[in-house]
Amino acid sequence: RLRRRPHSMAMLLLLPASAALLPGVSRSAPAFAAHSAVSRANLFLQQTDRAGTNVNPPFAGPRGTPLLDAVRSPSDMKGLTLQELKQLAYELRWETINAVSKTGGHLGSSLGVVELTVALHYVFNAPADPIIWDVSHQVYPHKILTGRRDRMHTLRQAGGLSGFAKRSESEYDCFGAGHSTTSISAALGMAVAHDLRGMKRNSVAIIGDGAITGGMAYEAMNNAAYLNSRVIVVYNDNGQVSLPTGTPSAGGTAPAGSLSAYTSRLIASRPFQDVRDIAKRINKLFPTTIQQTNAKLDEFARGMMTGGTLFEELGFLYIGPVDGHDLDNLVPILENIRDRGGDKPVLLHIKTEKGYGYPPAEAASDKYHGVPKFEVSTGKKLSSPSKTPSYTSVFADQLIDIAAEDRSVVAITAAMPGGTGIDKFGRRFPKRTFDVGIAEQHAVTFAAGLAVEGIKPFCAIYSTFLQRAYDQVVHDCAIQKIPVRFILDRAGLVGNDGPTHHGSFDLAYLGCIPNLVICAPSDEIELKRMTQTVYEIDNLPSVLRYPRGSALGLDVLNDLLGYELTEMPAKVEAVPIGKGRVLRSADSDKEATSRIAILSIGTRLAPAMHAARALTRRDSTIGVTVADARFMKPLDSDLVSKLAREHDVLITVEEGSIGGFGDHVLHFLALNGFLDDGKLKVRPMVLPDTYIEAAGQHEQYEEAGLTERFIEATALKLLGKQKVPA
């Protein structure tokens, strides 16, 4: 944790409106009315932390937000005093807490950068000076200060504000994000563009200790010094590399990677630097005459033990570490960096605390990284526990069972142990759990190296994040037939995180690669069986994809999918590779004169079964077969051929984009002559060729046209009995 400094007179400016303020402070806003009840103020200081928040519940913010009310854009902050900036930060922190409590979202990271956000918008001239956030889940305070406060209640909702920086949303969001490690490259490009156009501007990248574990950050820093660019990098070090940090693994429970340990040593070996220390370093960038003048003014300032740092070896002027919650130093330090001479790139290393200023977040293992709606006064999360397990936990439990019997099984995650279930695996098998940080390329090739030596790696990465390691999948695994088992969580549409996190493309971008086995379970039983299946594949790389969210549960499994279970099976067998299954046959519809086949892959099977029931209830002359493909590669050609021969209509349904499963089926049908006589009508149902914005998952699948009623309507249209969904 950050060192706790003694409360100063300036700290009183962080008091909520209910606390007494000392006389003599700025009176430019009503909240700064002077009072003389010093004893009440002292009592408040004993009951609050550095951010002015009660340390015990009930937790509450200020009764009013006079400074924040006056800020419609960053230009409104320029005339504030330093003391007023502190009060603004206090109001902004609680505005963020209250807003996220009503919508859910990424709270902890946003609370950690409140002071930094205030300082950046005070010192720099955005949007002319671009400020680029990485990963940009911490932009809620930024959104509030840049004219979107009145829309925060729509955060991550259908038609509302994005949970990330979004160029189409505001001119202050100069570069969109959602994935990681892009900020320095983007900021460098903007800085060079300014140079080419003869513009004197600042380009600022904010990158955290999680994002900086990705190799692209070092590619950009290596290039920045070479180009002699004035890019400014703010390295936000909060000790939260993975989600959650602290998962037991082969590297212990410390944040993943050597860089975090290195920066921790930097912080431990030297005190936080203040503006006098920083001024001496920046002074060296000015011409000699100015340096000599400044040296006289600062001759009593403390020196700084610089040493050689990794960042300086990359050609940056390294400044830090600096307390990222201390506006007294942060503001003038940023002003010095802004006004520096020369073109040398600068890296400002700040130390912050994720969840800062809200005790429930500070105490949580994940620092309230991503939270549902919650009660502000207690921090209690308001989400109801699901009656069925998540697909993620079903996978994790099955992998643990497999690993208990085979010591060669290991699990790899790229900084997402909680989201992939690898945290659960790590608690059971810490020495066989590997968190590589936000480094998907390394994760894939690291897994390939393990597999070459006879280890059985399960590389668990979100579908959308595996895009970052495409070449490694092809070059390091598929070409060489190395049996890495890719576990793609969050396949399909993911809900409120929106387009940057949808797993829309994996069937398309992986389906074209030879030597891959690709499967997708329709339910939790199939997920357990397919986890066993890919475990047993030792001659090829394999892919198992499944969605975010809760599994179906026993009632649905039995009623809809034909299982006869009293409880979830403890032991399962692998499914035959490349073989699908038929769950419902049109042969059972005795009065049918028209026959439709619905071939699903993944968890669209349940809506397909509902659509089949609706069709046969609607018209007894319609016979419906519903089949579960299970595998995209190898495709069950026997099943597809049978469906094509015995039905008038064939509809494929998938939770993926154009170019995926449906295209593979169409390709097979065309090459084998099933479409030549024009008798078979085929329709692939896929995600539309657009980016689906944040909303609930069901809302998104409705928008995509992949729910029960759209499947039914597609079938009726092909039979000439058109029904258009409302």
TrEMBL record:
List, in alphabetical order, the Gene Ontology terms for molecular function in this entry.
Answer: 1-deoxy-D-xylulose-5-phosphate synthase activity; metal ion binding
Its EC number is 2.2.1.7
Task: Output the Gene3D superfamilies linked to this UniProt entry.
Answer: 3.40.50.920, 3.40.50.970
Extract the signal peptide range.
Answer: 1-20
Do you know which SMART domains this protein is assigned to?
Transket_pyr
| Record keywords, A-Z | Isoprene biosynthesis, Magnesium, Metal-binding, Signal, Thiamine biosynthesis, Thiamine pyrophosphate, Transferase
Q: Which cofactor does it need?
A: thiamine diphosphate; Mg(2+)
Pfam families recorded: DXP_synthase_N (PF13292), Transket_pyr (PF02779), Transketolase_C (PF02780)
Q: Per its UniProt entry, what is the enzyme's top EC class, as one word?
A: transferase
* Pathway(s) the chain acts in: Metabolic intermediate biosynthesis; 1-deoxy-D-xylulose 5-phosphate biosynthesis; 1-deoxy-D-xylulose 5-phosphate from D-glyceraldehyde 3-phosphate and pyruvate: step 1/1
Question: What biological processes does GO assign it?
Answer: glyceraldehyde-3-phosphate metabolic process; terpenoid biosynthetic process; thiamine biosynthetic process
Record domain Transketolase-like pyrimidine-binding: where? 389-554
- Transmembrane segment boundaries: none
Q: Which family does it belong to?
A: Belongs to the transketolase family. DXPS subfamily.
Q: How does it assemble?
A: Homodimer.
Q: Which HAMAP family match?
A: DXP_synth
Protein name per the record: 1-deoxy-D-xylulose-5-phosphate synthase
